[in-house]
């Protein structure tokens, strides 16, 4: 049998290894696992796409007057996975010159926080100082207890675009006058359609 001193040394040795391992985990830099890297072409321009996970995609963009700023766009869905979603109308120029944008939903549509993700995807691009720098407001299509302003497609103007997130029989994006309608067959599809809209808005997809 080992002596008490030997046992104590052995215990201290194990504690030392555990401490070193813990420090390594705390201070080592996390590794980003890339699921897929590819180049996406819209027929005119090619973009480098890094799909990190099923809900994380990065695309570096050259922006600014002389394309001197590199901005990394972060969305949930990659462009290749959204090519099945049709886009009707000139959504890529609809918000040009807008003073504000409203993202609206029907309060009686039983939508959950998933649809909020779609709204946030839109907000972080349109209300981004590096991109459009247009204020984005949350709204609802009818009177609501939450106190959100009431905005529907009928309230949209040339200077105030309304983006309506809604459920429908087909996932698609289309325009009606000054309104952009983003439709999904379920809430996950609304998120996909919102990302499809953003790629169209930025000229990444045609």
Provide a quick synopsis of the model.
The chain has 206 residues and is an alpha/beta fold. The chain has helices at residues 4-27, 91-94, 113-126, 187-201, and strands spanning 36-41, 46-53, 56-63, 69-75, 87-88, 100-105, 136-140, 160-167, 172-176, 179-184.
Polypeptide structure, described:
The protein is an alpha/beta fold and 206 residues long. The protein has four helices and ten strands; from the N terminus they run H-E-E-E-E-E-H-E-H-E-E-E-E-H. The strands form two sheets. A six-stranded mixed beta sheet has the order 5-9-10-8-6-7, with helices on one face. Helix 3 (113-126) runs parallel beside helix 4. Residues 6-32 have low confidence and may be disordered.
Helical segment tally?
4
Largest sheet: 6 strands, mixed
Please provide the count of β strands. 10
β content, as a range?
25-35%
Cα-to-Cα separation, first versus last residue = 76 Å
- Element-level helix/strand string: HEEEEEHEHEEEEH
Give the helix proportion (percent range): 25-40%
Chain-averaged pLDDT: 86
User: Would you tell me the structural class of the helices and strands?
Assistant: alpha/beta
Low-pLDDT segments: 6-32
**Shape call:** globular
Rg over CA atoms, rounded to whole Å, is 24 Å
How are strands sequenced across the largest beta sheet? 5-9-10-8-6-7
Could you give the topology of this structure?
Elements: H1 4-27, E1 36-41, E2 46-53, E3 56-63, E4 69-75, E5 87-88, H2 91-94, E6 100-105, H3 113-126, E7 136-140, E8 160-167, E9 172-176, E10 179-184, H4 187-201
Parallel strand pairs: 5-9, 6-7, 6-8, 8-10
Antiparallel strand pairs: 1-2, 2-3, 3-4, 9-10
């Amino acid at each position: 049998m080992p002596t008490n001193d030997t046992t104590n040394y052995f215990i201290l040795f194990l504690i030392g290894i555990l401490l070193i391992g813990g420090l390594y985990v705390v201070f080592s830099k996390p590794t980003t696992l890339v699921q897929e890297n590819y180049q996406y072409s819209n027929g005119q321009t090619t973009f480098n796409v890094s799909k990190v996970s099923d809900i994380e995609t990065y695309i570096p963009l050259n922006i600014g007057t002389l394309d001197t700023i590199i901005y990394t766009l972060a969305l949930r869905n990659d462009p290749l996975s959204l090519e099945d979603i049709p886009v009707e109308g000139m959504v890529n120029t609809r918000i040009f010159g807008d003073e504000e944008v409203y993202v609206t939903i029907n309060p009686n549509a039983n939508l959950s926080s998933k649809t909020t993700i779609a709204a946030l995807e839109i907000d972080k691009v349109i209300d981004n100082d590096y991109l459009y720098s247009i204020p984005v407001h949350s709204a609802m299509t009818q009177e609501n207890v939450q106190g959100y302003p009431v905005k529907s497609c009928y309230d949209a103007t040339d200077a105030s675009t309304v983006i309506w997130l809604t459920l429908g029989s087909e996932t698609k994006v289309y325009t009606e006058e000054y309104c952009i309608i983003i439709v999904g067959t379920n809430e996950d599809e609304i998120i996909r359609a919102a990302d499809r809209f953003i790629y169209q808005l930025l000229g990444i997809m045609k």
